[in-house]
TrEMBL record:
One of its GO terms (cellular component) is mitochondrion. Residues 68-243 form the Metallo-beta-lactamase domain. This is persulfide dioxygenase. One of its GO terms (biological process) is hydrogen sulfide metabolic process. Its cofactor is Fe(2+). It is found in: Mitochondrion. The keyword Ribonucleoprotein does not apply. Pfam families: Lactamase_B. Keywords: Acetylation, Dioxygenase, Iron, Metal-binding, Mitochondrion, Oxidoreductase, Transit peptide. Belongs to the metallo-beta-lactamase superfamily. Glyoxalase II family.
Amino acid sequence: MILPLRLIPRVAAAAARLTPAASCAPTLLPPRRARLLPALAMAAAAYSAGSGVGRRLLFRQLFEAESSTYTYLLADVADPDKPAVLIDPVDRTVDRDLNLIKELGLKLVYAMNTHVHADHITGTGLLKAKLPGVKSVISKASGAKADHFVDHGDKIHFGNLFLEVRATPGHTAGCVTYVTGDADGQPSPRMAFTGDALLIRACGRTDFQGGSPDQLYESVHSQASMQNLIFTLPKDTLLYPAHDYKGFTVSTVEEEVAYNARLTKDKETFKGIMDNLNLRYPKMIDVAVPANLVCGIQDPPPKI
Ligand SMILES: [Fe+2]
């Protein structure tokens, strides 16, 4: 499915000027950092990606401290409308995000979730109420309400950029990973927003919301319908999780294939690890899940 708000495609004169890493790396990396592993150096450069002149992608990684959630802002700033998407917004930080969007002159088109979160309330309902015209997006398999439902293989366009949808169930039954497009004019290296399917050196728990360690392992390792999931994406793909609890911000496929503490194991060992985590019942789950099934708020007023 191609979402209806796709803007008129422009001639892709932008291939050479879009990447989050390429044009800024030499100036952003100090000499000492330039000696890091290529993947680490690339990740550091991408994290610093901004809205420099001549670059198509504007990218911001935003943090909500109480639930250690990352929200991602992506925009096509080469398009006159500067259409933007927010991935995994949090209700507590909606005003911060809206202020940033306003300061940068962006037009928020989609507020998207990787899954129905259990540890915080999504900001999508508030965003829709405060910024009429914004559409919410979540997977059909999530069972949540939204304006647009996506399935594996769908594309979400904003300007001349797009995200591809990968079904990566296992943390919840409806988890998806959003991956930047594989085409001329799209970010290089690619960027994958993995939600809780893959965390840096870890992964989301699998003991509620239809979770399944077996399914999560397959979501990360397998190749489905000729479309790469996570570990089969190019090794320089930048991985951006929905959370981090240790201060990490970004990883790569190459790093996680080598160092992920759980997902580098064979499937049976992985299932044993996940079945014996003995985690506490999530303190927000009874509030967050019902709210997130309806965009975060039950009946948004027309304007807040
Ligand atoms: Fe989650």
